[in-house]
TrEMBL record:
Residues 130-189, 436-466 are annotated as: Disordered. The keyword Kinase applies. TPR repeats lie at residues 305-338. Residues 445-460 have a biased composition (Pro residues). GO terms for molecular function: kinase activity. This is Tyrosine protein kinase:Serine or threonine protein kinase:Sel1 repeat. Transmembrane segments: none annotated. The keyword Zinc does not apply. Residues 141-158 have a biased composition (Basic and acidic residues). Keywords: Kinase, TPR repeat, Transferase. It comes from Streptomyces venezuelae (strain ATCC 10712 / CBS 650.69 / DSM 40230 / JCM 4526 / NBRC 13096 / PD 04745). Gene3D superfamilies: Tetratricopeptide repeat domain.
Length: 495
């Protein structure tokens, strides 16, 4: 509520108009346009029975802390049918946490189609939800953290003979409008609460693209489909990058990532950072590495960490190790564990095993599963299988296929055949599930369940399957695999 009072200065006649006409004009301007009016004149007009003045006077009293007197004047104006008085009363109650009382004032006005009352109801819902979560009400968008999961895009981890040389890149984040590294992050709250946040951010700009989008959400929630479409169209016509991003998320939810490609491209070309990264991913999958590089560089210039990683992967695959290292180090500076792991892989490729091991350890400490596999492989190369096993087990329990294979070998070496066979079966089951999911949908498969599959005890360990798996590296001259195979054959002979 605006503070419409001002201290009274000297007044003269206004071109011969009567004092009553001048007072009426001052009240009208204060009520309709929010212009300041001297307190004593607002009080004079209110006492004389002007309903608009009662509202203006009541709001002014509330703004200077005379709440009881403010309520009296606002109740009189509301009883006379003034909608602004009802909104002002509702606001007084909402500000002191009496949400049910506030709604009783807002609701009747909102049902007449009053936009301000509808906005007040949205804010009220957001405040109620925040109070229910014992959290402060939303006053600004959450900082966007692009929630992504790593996708392996390289060769399978080696069973044990050397550190895992795989390099990972990042897929696009998914989510509805909201929250996603900016105001567009996929929200933790409901769409209605997100809309309330936008209205709180832009209280005096009904034409702002984010307000139009918020009103579309609100009106759709209220069942006003035609109004929602009109607001949505106006928001879309603005060309605002955030709005285009939200629209692309809607199409992703309906049509999948590839089906929403053109909407994502529009948002990317309008300057939306996360959409630029997503276009880079899509173009990489399509084989257009030049186009992917362009979008990754644009997103990286905006500080998008996942684009640092993916651009590094693309440059390394091209053979530009210096360029790849530059972007991996940018990701490392941002604290990204995947960037640390990839930097370790690159340094290993350069022959700097000490440097590689340092960054694998850093990434493993941050929970990166690829780095856990690589650190374990380094220990195994030195003969420390006991030290390698817990690292591989952690990664295996997180669903890492290469870690599961390495863990199988560690278990076989110590004669734990039944557990080794269960882990080996889990790799086969995951591969089958991934293939089935890929053939049924373009969506990424769900992460495998942690730990060996608990489908009941097998009839006995499938030693033949384990031996078959070990025979490949053994024939290639892997001494560790040969020793494990000899141990397995000895256990088999004992059955």
């Amino acid at each position: 509520m605006a503070a419409w009072w001002r201290r009274r200065a000297g007044r003269g006649s206004a071109s011969g108009r009567s004092r009553a006409a001048e007072l009426d004009e001052l009240v009208r301007a204060a009520y309709e346009e929010g212009r300041p009016i001297p307190e004593e004149l607002a009080a004079e007009a209110a006492v004389a029975g002007d309903v608009r003045a009662m509202t203006v006077y009541g709001i002014g009293l509330g703004n200077r802390g005379a709440v009881k007197e403010a309520e009296e004047w606002l109740r009189r104006a509301r009883a006379a049918g003034d909608p602004m008085a009802a909104l002002a009363l509702g606001t007084l109650f909402m500000d002191r946490g009496e949400f049910d009382a506030a709604e009783r004032y807002f609701r009747p006005v909102a049902e007449t189609g009053h936009v301000g009352a509808r906005q007040a109801l949205v804010e009220l819902r957001a405040l109620r939800a925040a109070a229910a979560r014992h959290a402060p009400p939303p006053s600004r968008p959450a900082e966007r953290t692009e929630r992504t999961e790593r996708t392996e895009r390289a060769e399978r981890a080696e069973p044990a003979g050397s550190p895992n040389p795989s390099t990972v890149s990042r897929p696009p984040g998914e989510g509805p409008p909201g929250d996603g590294t900016s105001a567009s992050a996929p929200p933790a709250d409901s769409p209605v609460e997100w809309a309330a946040r936008q209205l709180l951010l832009h209280p005096d700009d009904n034409g702002h693209p984010h307000v139009l989008m918020a009103m579309a959400v609100l009106q759709a929630h209220e069942g006003e489909v035609a109004r929602a479409r009109a607001c949505f169209a106006a928001a879309l016509a603005s060309g605002d990058p955030e709005v285009l991003f939200w629209v692309s998320r809607i199409h992703v939810a309906q049509d999948g990532l590839h089906g929403a490609r053109e909407h994502i491209r529009r948002a990317a070309d309008a300057g939306h950072t996360a959409s630029r990264h997503t276009m880079g991913v899509l173009l990489t999958e399509e084989g257009d590495t030049a186009g992917a590089e362009r979008y990754y560089r644009l997103a990286a210039a905006d500080g998008h960490t996942d684009s640092y990683v993916n651009l590094g992967v693309l440059l390394r695959q091209r053979g530009d190790l210096d360029g790849a290292e530059t972007y991996y180090r940018k990701a490392v500076e941002a604290g990204d564990a995947g960037g640390m792991n990839n930097l370790g892989n690159l340094l290993r490729q350069r022959g700097d095993l000490a440097g590689a091991e340092r960054w694998w350890r850093e990434a493993a400490a941050a929970g990166d599963t690829d780095a856990l596999v690589s650190c374990g492989a380094v220990l195994a190369e030195r003969g420390d299988w006991a030290g390698a096993e817990p690292l591989w087990r952690r990664a295996a329990e997180a669903g890492h296929a290469g870690a599961r294979l390495n863990l199988v070998q560690a278990l076989v070496r110590t004669g734990r055949m039944e557990e080794a066979e269960r882990w080996l079966r889990s790799v086969d089951l995951d591969a089958a599930a991934t293939a089935a999911a890929a053939s049924a949908s373009t969506a990424p498969p769900s992460a495998p369940a942690a730990g060996p599959p608990d489908s009941g005890p097998p009839d006995g360990p499938d030693l033949a399957a384990v031996a078959d798996w070990l025979s490949g590296p053994a024939r290639a001259g892997d001494a560790d695999a040969r020793a494990a195979l000899d141990l397995l054959n000895g256990a088999s002979d004992g059955h």
